Amino acid sequence: MQVLHDAPLAPLTTFRLGGPAARLVTASTDAEVIAAVREADDSGTPLLVIGGGSNLVIGDKGFDGTALRIATRGVELRGTTLELAAGEVWTDAVARTVEAGLAGVECLAGIPGSAGATPIQNVGAYGQEVSSTITEVIAYDRRAGETVTLTNEECAFSYRHSRFKADPERYVVLRVRFELEAADGLSAPVKYAEAARALGVEPGDRVPLADARATVLKLRAGKGMVLDAEDHDTWSAGSFFTNPILTEEQFAAFRARVRERLGQDAEPPAYPAGEGRTKTSAAWLIDKAGFTKGYGTGPARISTKHTLALTNRGGATTEDLLALAREVVAGVREAFGVTLVNEPVTVGVGL
């Protein structure tokens, strides 16, 4: 277990932003993770858990406590059951499942970060979410002081949300178990229209696993959503805002605002979200509110490839980024009456 003091945290995030931690602990085994958590809890020291750093916005003043970087490794594949240590690189894990001929997460290729973070955010893209394949999450329960196993139902998954995100001070994810599908080398049914078009198939069709993964990687790269140190469009947290989910009344008011602003024939994106709710597109809202690709003049700007990504063009501070985010939120609210919610976790700062 490595321990550093006054340690830079910016290099541990995909934004490359944020001040130092008073103390940085890197744990390479579950036992080390638990020991570091217990030490912080017993001493009353604030604790920040870091995986791949791809969904994290750290304030410029840094973190006055213990930052715990989870660097555990371990991949176990038994038939169609996959178990990943929390510190495993998610993109590598997806590649392994494709090589093994197992379907269920192939459309989650290219998403940066660690395996342990996937259940927290209920990571999803291109018609797949990890909640559809996760069977169990093994975590350290800080309140009970013991390791627990939570079933899929107990994880309380919803859109970009989970029990872990709802109670961030309680659980530290150690391992994640998935149940995948052996479908003769074919993918799960392709659900996302954009992916289906790129693959030349109809939604609901299956395609070779490698084709599904390669197509998603190409689509993501075209939006700056695959990490590349030389490409500042990827110095981001991917999608900075979640897609709004509106009640019937809220959606009706939103549609009226859209038609008032864009014309009586204008129709906003709308997708069923269950229980009388409708999901719309944050990227569409941002673009139609006037924040187009590349928007901004400072060191933090909207990606030149995708309006949903806020980026560090080099030399930005966290405050630069937050100023841009606040401008976007205010502009969308003024234009359409919808308040965007940030997807990344913020530390020491907020919108």
TrEMBL record:
This is UDP-N-acetylenolpyruvoylglucosamine reductase. It is an enzyme of class 1 (oxidoreductase). Keywords: Cell cycle, Cell division, Cell shape, Cell wall biogenesis/degradation, Cytoplasm, FAD, Flavoprotein, NADP, Oxidoreductase, Peptidoglycan synthesis. The keyword Cell division applies. GO terms for cellular component: cytosol. InterPro entries: FAD-bd_PCMH (IPR016166), FAD-bd_PCMH-like_sf (IPR036318), FAD-bd_PCMH_sub1 (IPR016167), FAD-bd_PCMH_sub2 (IPR016169), MurB (IPR003170), MurB_C (IPR011601), MurB_C_sf (IPR036635), Oxid_FAD_bind_N (IPR006094). It catalyses: UDP-N-acetyl-alpha-D-muramate + NADP(+) = UDP-N-acetyl-3-O-(1-carboxyvinyl)-alpha-D-glucosamine + NADPH + H(+). Gene3D superfamilies: 3.30.465.10, UDP-N-acetylenolpyruvoylglucosamine reductase, C-terminal domain, Uridine Diphospho-n-acetylenolpyruvylglucosamine Reductase, domain 2. Belongs to the MurB family. Its EC number is 1.3.1.98. Its main location: cytoplasm. GO terms for molecular function: FAD binding; UDP-N-acetylmuramate dehydrogenase activity. It comes from the Bacteria. PROSITE patterns: FAD_PCMH. Residues 17-183 form the FAD-binding PCMH-type domain. It is found in: Cytoplasm. The keyword Lyase does not apply. The active site is at R160, S239, E343. Pathway: Cell wall biogenesis; peptidoglycan biosynthesis. Pfam families: FAD_binding_4, MurB_C. The gene is murB. Cell wall formation. Its cofactor is FAD.
